[in-house]
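Re-running Chaperone protein DnaJ to confirm reproducibility after the cluster update. Everything else is unchanged from the original entry.
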Amino acid sequence: MSTKDFVEKDYYKVLGVPKDATEAEIKKAYRKLAREFHPDANKGDAKAEERFKEISEANDILGDPKRRKEYDDARALFGNGGFRAPGAGGPGGTFNFDLGDLFGGAPGGGQAGGFGGGLGDVFGGLFNRGAGPGTRTQPRRGQDIESEVTLSFTEAVDGATVPLRMSSSAACKACSGTGDKNGTPRVCPTCVGTGQVSRGGSGSFSLTDPCVDCKGRGLIAQDPCDVCKGSGRARSSRTMQVRIPAGVSDGQRIRLRGKGAPGERGGPAGDLYVVVHVDAHPVFGRKGDNLTVTVPVSFTEAALGGEIRVPTLGGPPVTLKLPAGTPAGRTMRARGKGAVRKDGTRGDLLVTVEVAVPSELGDKAREALEAYREATADEDPRAELFQAAKGA
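Result of re-run:
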């Protein structure tokens, strides 16, 4: 599309929305029209296909806040082919001329109105994004890096700072990242320095791929560097101290922004993704933000009740009150003794009671238990079980 067409087309009218329409209203209008005029729903209808292209084109501009502002500014400045300047021309301060002269140069090879190369470059970012002779190569974001780290159970709960040795792509030191022995690469003629080429249809169906000739760099080495073979990148190893936040869980993937491979030509660094593995603990387990522990108690403690001491992770033991008649498998809660949450508070320690059965009994203990059995001979702990089974 020419810049002239861009200025003269009313994309708001194409989508049927007012100029002050919100992003949601624009998206809703586009989706409705796209369904109505989609080529799959209008096979063989050339008019519907052309209409669909216009709709997609309008959405590409109005659906992007930055491009929409550029479009609105351009329309305000050059609307209807007239340049509005205070005191110019007639009463309205407007004089008219051919937009083709302004953007493409005056007839006969001269420049229009003394604007040098024309004002097409002003809007080059909207179509082809400035692709043309003299285009400067664009900064490139560094690659993302993924690494793994294994923590102890305690480190995962409390957080830890661990060293990570990483290998990534960085600017080649031999050629200072240019890929050329003499440091004078040339702009790729295929993508004109953008590092990308477009293919396919128009509007939202245009596809952009990395340029195969320069491999997305926008530059081609005239005399390729012996170290990086003209790529401008070389493998680099470094050790970084990485802070793993408290409360991380096994298998969690942490993103550290800007800690990946360095960018090119002033581009930002990529991100570092760290996959965390957590070793098991011989005593404690994990359930979300809570820690778990199973505590054995004697039969008399469970039956008569009492106080029991429970270990905590990295801290002093806590004392819990065990109610009389506590059954095996009951879980009690020690508040604030669990893992660290995102807000800095701690979860709880879930204490599950397990009645310990002695493997050997002394004479006195055996006599006492025999007496207890005689005293409770009329009680059947399985009576309700059989009754419920019959009812089912």
